[in-house]
Amino acid sequence: MNAKQGQSILKNKIADMCRKKGVKMPFVYDLLCISSSSYYRVLSKPLSDLHVERLADFLDVSIETIHSWHPITTQLDTSNVDIEVAENKPKQFEQIELQEDISSPEQTDDTSLRLHSSNSQKSKNQYVWLLAILVLITVFSIVYIKNSETYFLHHKGKFSGFGTDYDISSVEGLSDFHTQLYAYKFENVEVTINGDNIEMLTNIYTNSIDGENADYIGIFKATGKYLNGFAAMHYKIVADSNGEEWIGVMMLKIGTTGHGKGYWLTAHNDNGVTSVGPFAFGDANLRRVQEKINKIITESN
Fold this sequence. Notes:
This protein is of the alpha+beta class and 301 residues long. It is built from eight helices and eight strands.
């Protein structure tokens, strides 16, 4: 084997190992303390003991194997090699600063350690800042939820009441309404307000306008939205006798204290004497149960 063939074998082995370890040639230049321009010149001459040892470690082979791959082993002018190594040392540090891809698991020099330490410190700082931000978000969320609950309205009131049909069919343009037919009585009225939702539940009785005794109809249930002391609801009445149902809408002014007043609109199923219009309109008057008011006054004192 001539010197040129031996040089080619060693270069090929170095290139193969770079691909295997995932590093680039600048790593080899730094390993040998040489520049890229002097790499081929170094391999064309006898290798120094330092170069042989580092290449053997990098290629995971023995020193004898390196000598067999590089037959130019006669140390004719080791002083020139040492001078070249010394001249190229400053370039090594320049390459370390400029190249981002020369690091590998095999590098354990001071520069890599410093970079690793710096990155670890940055990661810790980022973690601390992230933890602080999460804590602040949690605190503000708890305060917001607590304040929201403070202003979230919860109220339940008990009432009794009454209502009547309005005779508005004689008004011009309102011929679609029935004449006045019934009066109503509400017993065991419960009004529940939760935030912007409202529900009204009561037993409803009715009697004709000129009658005296009120007959029980069934359950009146209304649900809807509550805003600034007003409720907009839709309701359903289910007859206790035969399960017949009536639906309608109601607008009610009601607060957490005092009484309630509202108006309703529905489809009337009874044929009137003077009007056959399908609509009926009337009022609802709710009186807060006095025992409830007395209890609130007593508790406040």
